[in-house]
Design goal:
alpha/beta, Nucleotidyltransferase, domain 5, 2 domains, two-stranded antiparallel ribbon
Length: 476
C-alpha cells in the first residue's frame, strides 16, 4: 500500500535573538506535556569512533565523556507531545480531515510542538569535517549557526549558569524543567545524546559510569525510554534505524485510520502539529532617545578606542565606524557651542557693567537669549543631526536584531527537531502496540547499547553515589 509522505513538520527555530522571548512559552508547554522527545547533534564523533563502541562499558563511557568535552553541541531538538481528547473527526498526520463520524476510541491524538535550538559553544572545541558536511547536507545553515547560535558553556552549573536572562542560564532552566516533569522522556539510541546533554546543560560529567547512571535515574523521574531498544527487544523489528521506523509506523497508522471494520481494535495515533509560536513585538526606543540623549549608549566604547571588542558578536552594541564618528562630531560641536555661549555670556555681562548702557540692558539680554550662536549654519546642523539619527537607527537595528521564528529553506532529515519529532511519533506507536503499562514495565530506564545484547540500566546501584553537583542541585 502506498502512503503519501507527509511534509516536514512545522517547528520553532530558537536562536540567541528569540530565546528569552520563547522561554516562558516553552516552559508552559513542558508543563502540559504527556511525554517529551529529545535529540542532539554535535560537531563530530572524534578520531576514534570505535572507542565509543568498546566492549567495556565503563571504558566506553570514558571515551564518550572525552568526546563531549572536546566537541560541542550544534543543535538541540525538543518535541513536546500533549495528548488530546478523542475527536469526532479523525485527522491524518498532516492535520487534514480523513473520516467523519462518532468519537473514535481507537485514536490517540497529540498536539505536537517542535523546537530546534541552534547551539554555539563559547569554549574551544574540535570539529569533524565529515560530520559538519553531513549536517550541512541535512539542513544545517552554517552561517545561521555561527551568527545566531545560542552561546553556552558546559560543565559545572555553579560556575557556568550565569545570571538571570543569560542564554546559558536560560537553556539550563529549560532542561531543568524537562527533568522536573514526571513524564516519559524518549530518545533513540540515546546514550551519547544523554552524555552530551548532561555535560552541556547540567553539570560536569562524573568520572564513573555508575555515578552518571545514578544521576540520570534521579534526574528523569518519569523514566527514560529508548525507542531503539523497544524496537529491537520488544517489537523485534527487522530494522531499527530512526527514519525506517518512522516511515513504517506512519504507514501502519494510516492503514489503521482507514480501517472500516467496526470490530477492529487496533489503536493508532494522530499528530496535530502546531503552528509556530507567535513572538511579542519588541518595544524599540524612539530615535531621539538613542541619538541625542546619550550617543555613547549606541556604540561599543572598547571598539571605538581600540578597534577590537572581546565580546565580538555577543557585544550587543554597534561597531559602526560612521556612527562612532558622527557621535564624536556631535560631542565636539556641543562642546564648542557651550564654550561660545559661555564666552558670549561673559561679554554680555561686561556690557551690562559698562556705564551708560543701563537703558539697553534689558533689550540686549532678551535679544541674546533668543538668538542662538551655533558654530555651524542652521542647514549644516540640521543635516548633521539627520545623518546621525539615520546612522544610529541602522546600527541599532543591526546590533539588536529583532527576534525571529522562521524556518529557513533547505530543511531535510536529521535536523535535531525532526529527529526528536520522529522519536516521539515512534514512541507513541510503541505505546499503542504494547500498551503503556507493558512498555513501562519492560523498557523504562533501559538505554540501547551498540553491539550489546543487554541495555544500559538507568538505576542507582546500592554501591553508587550521586555526583556532588547533582547533590547540590537536589538541595536547591
Amino acid at each position: 500500500m502506498h502512503v503519501a509522505q507527509i511534509p516536514l513538520p512545522t517547528y520553532n527555530q530558537v536562536t540567541k535573538h528569540n530565546l528569552a522571548l520563547m522561554q516562558p512559552m516553552i516552559i508552559q508547554l513542558i508543563k502540559q506535556a504527556t511525554f517529551i522527545a529529545l535529540d542532539a547533534e554535535f560537531t563530530g564523533l572524534g578520531p576514534k569512533v570505535a572507542a565509543t563502541r568498546t566492549a567495556d562499558i565503563q571504558e566506553r563511557y570514558q571515551h564518550m565523556c572525552a568526546l563531549a568535552k572536546s566537541h560541542a553541541l550544534v543543535a538541540f531538538g525538543l518535541s513536546i507531545f500533549i495528548k488530546t481528547e478523542p475527536a469526532s473527526e479523525s485527522k491524518s498526520m498532516d492535520g487534514t480531515a480523513a473520516t467523519g463520524g462518532e468519537v473514535n476510541d481507537r485514536e490517540r491524538g497529540y498536539k505536537v510542538h517542535n523546537f530546534n535550538f541552534s547551539m554555539l559553544s563559547e569554549t574551544d572545541y574540535a570539529v569533524s569535517p565529515r560530520s559538519m558536511i553531513f549536517l550541512a547536507e541535512n539542513g544545517l545553515d552554517l552561517n545561521q549557526w555561527i551568527m545566531e547560535g545560542i552561546p553556552y558553556t558546559g560543565g559545572d552549573r555553579l560556575v557556568n549558569e550565569g545570571g538571570r536572562g543569560n542564554p546559558n542560564g536560560i537553556m539550563r532552566s529549560i532542561f531543568k524543567r524537562i527533568m522536573s516533569r514526571q513524564v516519559p522522556v524518549a530518545v533513540h539510541n540515546g546514550f551519547l545524546d544523554l552524555v552530551f546533554l548532561y555535560h552541556s546543560f547540567y553539570a560536569s560529567l562524573p568520572p564513573k559510569l555508575s555515578t552518571f547512571v545514578a544521576d540520570l535515574s534521579d534526574m528523569f523521574p518519569g523514566g527514560l525510554f529508548d525507542t531503539k531498544y523497544v524496537s529491537d527487544y520488544m517489537t523485534r523489528e527487522r530494522s531499527s534505524f530512526l527514519a525506517y521506523l518512522f516511515r513504517k509506523y506512519e504507514r501502519d497508522d494510516s492503514r489503521a485510520r482507514e480501517e472500516t471494520d467496526p470490530s477492529s481494535t487496533q489503536v493508532y495515533s494522530t499528530f496535530h502539529i502546531q503552528p509556530r509560536l507567535g513572538l511579542p513585538a519588541i518595544q524599540q526606543k524612539p530615535i531621539s532617545e538613542t541619538s541625542s540623549s546619550d550617543p555613547q549608549l549606541a556604540y561599543c566604547e572598547d571598539y571605538a578606542f581600540h578597534g577590537v571588542c572581546k565580546k565580538n558578536m555577543w557585544c550587543g552594541k554597534s561597531h559602526d565606524l560612521d556612527l562612532i564618528l558622527d557621535a564624536e562630531e556631535q560631542r565636539r560641536d556641543s562642546k564648542r557651542r557651550k564654550t561660545q555661549k559661555r564666552s558670549q555670556d561673559a561679554q554680555d555681562a561686561e556690557k551690562v557693567a559698562e556705564p551708560g548702557n543701563a537703558q539697553n540692558n534689558v533689550s540686549d539680554n532678551v535679544s541674546e537669549t533668543k538668538m542662538p550662536t551655533p558654530s555651524l549654519s542652521t542647514e549644516e546642523t540640521t543635516e548633521l543631526s539627520m545623518q546621525s539619527s539615520v546612522g544610529t537607527t541602522k546600527a541599532t537595528a543591526r546590533a539588536a536584531k529583532a527576534p525571529e521564528n522562521v524556518v529557513q529553506p533547505g530543511e531535510k532529515f536529521h535536523s535535531a527537531y525532526f529527529d526528536a519529532f520522529m522519536t516521539g511519533t515512534i514512541f507513541s506507536h510503541q505505546l499503542n502496540q504494547h500498551t503503556p503499562e507493558e512498555v513501562e514495565s519492560q523498557a523504562k530506564n533501559k538505554v540501547y547499547l551498540i553491539g550489546k545484547s543487554i541495555p544500559l540500566i538507568i538505576e542507582k546501584s546500592a554501591f553508587a553515589k550521586f555526583s556532588l553537583e547533582h547533590e547540590r542541585s537536589r538541595a536547591l
